[in-house]
Amino acid sequence: MKVFGNGTLTITSVTEKDEGDYLCVARNKMGDDYVLLKVNVMTKAAKIDHKSLSDHKVSYGGELKVDCIASGLPNPEITWSLPDGTMVNSIPQSDNSGLRTKRYVMFDNGTLYLNEVGMREEGDYTCYAENEIGKDEMKVHIKVVVDAPIIRNSAYSVVKVPYGETAVLNCSAKGEPTPTITWTSPAHRAIVPVSDKYQIANDGTLHIHKIQRFDVGNYTCSARNVAGIDKKVVHVQVLVATPLINGIESSGIIRKTVVKDQRVLLDCKANGSPLPRIMWVFPNNIVLPAPYYGSRITVHRNGTLDIHAVRISDSVALLCIARNEGGEAKLQVQLEVIEGVEKPQLRNPPTESIQLTNGILTLNCSIEGKPMPEITWILPNGTSLLRGTTIFRFNHRLDGTLVIRDPSVSEVGRYRCVGRNSAGYVERTVTLESNRKPEITNKYSSLVSIINGENLHLNCLSGGHPLPKLTWTLPNGVVLTRPQTTGRYSVLNNGTLTVQRTSVYDRGMYLCQTTNEHGSSSLSVSVIVIAYPPRITKGPAPVTYSRPGVAVQLNCMPLATPKAEVVWEMPDGLQLKVGVQPRLYGNIYLHPQGSLVIQNPSNRDNGVYKCTAKNVVGSDSRSTYVYVF
């Protein structure tokens, strides 16, 4: 208490004990005077306002923020009790306090805050408000929400991989928190994420390099987090290709006539998976493996038999065998060595024209000579067929005849039969003509969809001899003729229309039309161009709290077609553009996926940060207020 010269009485820090009657007396020689004052001390017990009555659910790894606003006279002191009994108040923790307590922050208004919530933060939290008059409490139950892992397309599946290739086993999972992906081999051993044999990508995909037969079996993908586990089994099969010799499967027989003292090369090129082992078998079961190097006879690594200065006694039957794990193929060569040579001669006219018919079409080519000429058919597209070879619907028989099964307009054109031996060369030409209108061999059974910005390819395959006229009519009515290029549009020689860098204005109906003297055919294709505006699926919270010096990340991940451009606007109005490479602007780090990281925040970084995603269709934005305390 203090009495001033003017008679004023001052009482500091009033309490209940100061309540009562106060008498002020004034006295001098002339007499006394007094006044009685009654003092009542106003008090109010501590009370928590707006008590939370329901449970709070917090995502695993998210932020926990619980308010506890209390009133009272004098102002109540607020403390929090954690699930493990630890007490937290607004007094800063000392350096030697527990790590658990340090993770919590209590603001001056009584709000309890924690980032990166884990399972141990689940439980009952109690807020206590107390002053000299009374106390109050509020209990809040915190439930940490987690989602057990779920593997997409988790059904048992079989993956077939060619021998020696790379097997790709997919395993993507969702869950909260993000599941950890591991793979187990058929031997029930954990697969190391990175090795010469295996590689596990960030999305959980397993790559098995140079697959062998011992890699066959069940591979198990496990997705784990604190909420549980999910598994997926993928069975890997290794495909082996039965050997082919010179493009022929199983057994084949060829005749080879050569002149005495010449060099002869007999091809035995084998394909298969794994690569076949090749050997040549001579009479009396003499076996020469590839490679083999003798004084007169050589077997090259590719299987070719090389005989120098052939003799009459070399007129024998030879057998080439190619073997691998998938089986074997054989090629029998009847080698004939003769004394003289004769130039190849045609038994048929050198030129002939025939009409296209249904069923089986036969093109004759009979050539004689010494040694026996090697006959090759050359198709209109330039493909060469040796004797005994079959490709698609074409079969070159051993007698030199070319057989075409179920020919169509696409097979119309000029066919060349070529006969060669050491003495010379002869050629016969057969022209296959069409008496039909042109056919378009490809069809479109549904809409063609393409993403905005990608290149569009529309096929209109129509052959013939002569080549029919072909045009494409665009949705805007423009007509292009084969071959032609106009701006972004091109019609290739094969009839394919290409549109570079499509946009939404390229949608609509495209019409291809082919015409010859017998009629015309058409093909219509409806094209849609896919594009949608950006939508930010993972953005920052409205308010982001951070401690000084503790890096804070602001997410901004948009979905858009075409890809959206992301720009961050700083509190001072500066705009930062996200690029394909990480960028650093002083204290600010920009991730290529759109996130912004304040690496060493301080109160100077407080303010509104705005993320905007934009493409040709539209835009989306998110804002957050960063508060560094």
Automatic annotation (TrEMBL):
Report the InterPro entries cross-referenced here: Ig-like_dom, Ig-like_dom_sf, Ig-like_fold, Ig_I-set, Ig_sub, Ig_sub2
Domain Ig-like, by residue range, is 46-145, 149-234, 243-336, 344-431, 438-526, 534-627
Subcellular location(s) of the protein: Membrane
> Which PROSITE patterns did the record assign?
IG_LIKE
Cellular component aspect of the GO annotation: membrane
Keywords attached to this entry: Disulfide bond, Immunoglobulin domain, Leucine-rich repeat, Membrane, Repeat, Signal, Transmembrane, Transmembrane helix
Q: Tell me the membrane topology, using the record's own terms.
A: Single-pass membrane protein
Q: Which protein, by its recorded name, is this? A: Ig-like domain-containing protein
Species lineage, top-down?
Eukaryota, Metazoa, Chordata, Craniata, Vertebrata
